[in-house]
Specification:
The protein is mainly alpha-helical. It has one domain: Ferritin, core subunit, four-helix bundle (Ferritin), CATH 1.20.1260. Helix 1 runs antiparallel to helix 2, helix 1 packs parallel to helix 3 and helix 4 runs antiparallel to helix 5. The protein starts with 6 loop residues before the first helix and ends with a helix. The structure holds zinc ion (ZN) and fe (iii) ion (FE) (3 copies). The site of one fe (iii) ion (FE) has 5 residues, from helix 1 and helix 3.
């Protein structure tokens, strides 16, 4: 990207990064949902895949509203998080332990997104972009809810089942 001279340039670059992150997730999430055994986990991942589609569209529209064409960046962090998820999914585990491992990977992704959207929201606030703040907040809240849902699935059933698996070997 061209030399960034002001916060607005960095704001747009960060939005491009998030657009790339969401795009990569759109490709990766179906495989992760398929790998999950817990019905509750599968359903949560599938629901978040649907949200991810709308998030990608919202970020694209934000970029376009600033005359930026989406797709200029590759989010290397998301690339790494997905590579790690694929590695984990290739390891030998009982289905119960795999569900716990999938949640561990998925929550890393959600935390990365929460961090990214938190940053662009505070940039948008500084830049006085009230409409952008609203859109970003709607995405931020979905990422937070997805993270909390994963915690509740882990703590409500998946972790316990993974323990039971180890005692019965
Ligand atoms: Zn960048
Ligand atoms: Fe997202
Ligand atoms: Fe990134
Ligand atoms: Fe997410």
């Amino acid at each position: 990207m061209a030399k960034m001279k002001e916060l607005k340039d960095l704001y747009l670059d960060e939005l491009q990064d998030l657009y790339s992150a969401e795009s990569q997730l759109l490709e990766a999430l179906p495989k992760v949902a398929k790998k999950a055994t817990s019905k509750e986990l599968k359903t949560a991942l599938e629901a978040h895949l649907e949200e991810t589609k709308t998030q990608q569209e919202k970020v694209a529209k934000l970029l376009e509203s600033h005359d930026e064409k989406p797709g200029k960046e590759t989010c290397l962090a998301m690339k790494g998080l997905i590579a790690e998820t694929n590695k984990v999914m290739g390891e030998e585990m009982t289905p119960e332990v795999m569900d716990a491992a999938i949640i561990a990977c998925a929550q890393r992704v959600e935390h990365y997104e929460i961090s990214g959207y938190g940053t662009v929201r505070s940039f948008a606030e500084s830049l006085g972009l009230k409409g952008d703040v609203k859109v970003i907040t709607s995405i931020f809240e979905q990422e937070e809810a997805a993270d909390q849902k994963l915690s509740s699935i882990a703590e409500g059933s998946v972790n316990e089942k993974a323990m039971a698996g180890s005692s019965s070997k």
